Automatic annotation (TrEMBL):
<keyword id="KW-0808">Transferase</keyword>
<dbReference type="GO" id="GO:0031388">
    <property type="term" value="P:organic acid phosphorylation"/>
</dbReference>
<keyword id="KW-0418">Kinase</keyword>
<dbReference type="GO" id="GO:0008887">
    <property type="term" value="F:glycerate kinase activity"/>
</dbReference>
<dbReference type="InterPro" id="IPR004381">
    <property type="entry name" value="Glycerate_kinase"/>
</dbReference>
<dbReference type="InterPro" id="IPR018197">
    <property type="entry name" value="Glycerate_kinase_RE-like"/>
</dbReference>
<dbReference type="InterPro" id="IPR036129">
    <property type="entry name" value="Glycerate_kinase_sf"/>
</dbReference>
<dbReference type="Pfam" id="PF02595">
    <property type="entry name" value="Gly_kinase"/>
</dbReference>
<dbReference type="InterPro" id="IPR018193">
    <property type="entry name" value="Glyc_kinase_flavodox-like_fold"/>
</dbReference>
<comment type="similarity">
    <text>Belongs to the glycerate kinase type-1 family.</text>
</comment>
<protein>
    <submittedName>
        <fullName>Glycerate kinase</fullName>
        <ecNumber>2.7.1.31</ecNumber>
    </submittedName>
</protein>
Length: 372
């Protein structure tokens, strides 16, 4: 009887999206076991690739195009995903990904970083489009942001008004945060009937040494002086909004987590929620073997990342699980995997692996298939 394989990788960031990675692994596996039944369930944790994961896994999902204001204050062609109606969400579920509307990837390669001026307005505009469509529930992925604006741009796009000391509308972006003297949230769009679930693998608070400015600001181009200015601005902004800046995840996406908490949304671990929404647990329980992976598997990957969550589901079901990674670091614990494959080792160097990830993912799929 043919065996059943579940292929559930995260994206290999900076290299290949999760859906394409899953397809390449499948091609490799089937080159060894052509009769295998393969289920492709690409995963995500709320960052880039979240829409793709749902689109691949949920029958009837529809991409809804929308033009929004990108992180360079120019129009960006984005989309959100409409999932079919359910008993709990008769108007359907809207999935909106910050990365495709306000993400750092939209700033080019190499990125034209705007640490004080990029904002989340486009993300808010995409959310507003989903609300206007009439969805009953929102699922928001907030990884890969380009800004440190506390979600101010997003809230402004949803109807909030931020004013400076003169009563004029405050500029958005991190630079504008410090000038805010008042926040009026009475015009905010109401939450959809079934609520708003926010996917993030980040538990950082808004402020302090583990906060949005200190930890993530430099990744977005902030200098030490910028970080200090952003920290002060976020602190004054936080005093105006009805949310706890110390809440886990408030610092996610440059403080967008905090802005969403102020709106009334609920933050949840990204990979766990995506797995539940695409039915990964049931698929794993019916599988003979599971394959997961990510770009870099290291000592921190066991803390909430996709491969660790997939491995935990496989362990509960008593199903062997294999790991594929662009690189497997020396401090990584792979003892929970029945087999593993490193694209860097297969290709001979990180540069070769990055140059043609699909090829080496096919090689990895074939190598793992021979092990089972």
């Amino acid at each position: 009887m043919p065996h059943t394989v579940v292929i559930a990788p995260d994206s290999f960031k900076g290299s290949i999206p999760a859906a394409a990675a899953a397809a390449a692994l499948t091609d490799g596996w089937r080159s060894v076991h052509p009769a295998a039944r393969v289920r492709l369930l690409p995963m995500a944790d709320g960052g880039e690739g979240t829409l793709d994961a749902f689109a691949a896994a949920v029958p009837g999902a529809r991409r809804m195009p929308v033009t929004v204001t990108g992180p360079e204050a120019t129009p960006v062609a984005a989309s959100w995903l409409l999932l079919p109606p359910t008993a709990e969400a008769p108007g359907g579920v809207g999935v909106v990904e910050l990365a495709c509307a306000s993400g750092i990837e939209l700033l080019g390669d190499p990125p034209r970083l705007r640490p004080l001026d990029a904002d989340t307005r486009g993300f808010g505009e995409a959310i507003a489009a989903a609300l206007s469509h009439g969805v009953s529930r929102l699922v928001l992925g907030i990884g890969s942001s380009a800004s440190t604006d506390g979600g101010m741009g997003m809230l402004a796009a949803l109807g909030a008004r931020f004013a400076d000391a003169a009563g004029d509308e405050a500029a958005t972006g991190g630079r504008g945060l410090g000038a805010i003297a008042s926040a009026d949230l009475t015009g905010l769009a109401p939450l959809p009937p079934a609520g708003v679930q926010v996917l993030s693998d980040v538990t950082n608070p808004l402020l302090g040494e583990r906060g949005a400015a200190a930890v993530f600001g430099p990744q977005k181009g902030a200098t030490p002086d910028d970080v200090r200015a952003l920290e002060a601005a976020l602190a004054s902004y936080a005093a105006l909004l009805p949310a706890d800046p110390a809440a886990p995840g408030a610092g996610a996406a440059g403080g967008t987590g905090f802005g969403l908490l102020a709106w009334g949304a609920r933050l949840v671990p990204g990979s766990t929620a995506v797995a539940e929404l695409i039915g990964l647990g049931d698929a794993v329980a019916d599988a003979s073997v599971v394959v997961t992976g990510e770009g870099s598997y290291d000592g921190q990957s066991a803390a909430g990342k996709v491969p660790a969550h997939v491995a935990a589901l496989a362990a509960l079901a008593g199903v062997p699980v294999a790991l594929v990674a662009g690189r497997i670091a020396g401090d990584a614990d792979v003892s929970g995997f029945a087999a593993s494959a490193s694209l860097t080792e297969l290709a001979g160097s990180p540069e070769a692996a990055m140059a043609d990830p699909a090829r080496w993912l096919r090689e990895a799929g074939a190598a793992l298939a021979r092990r089972f």
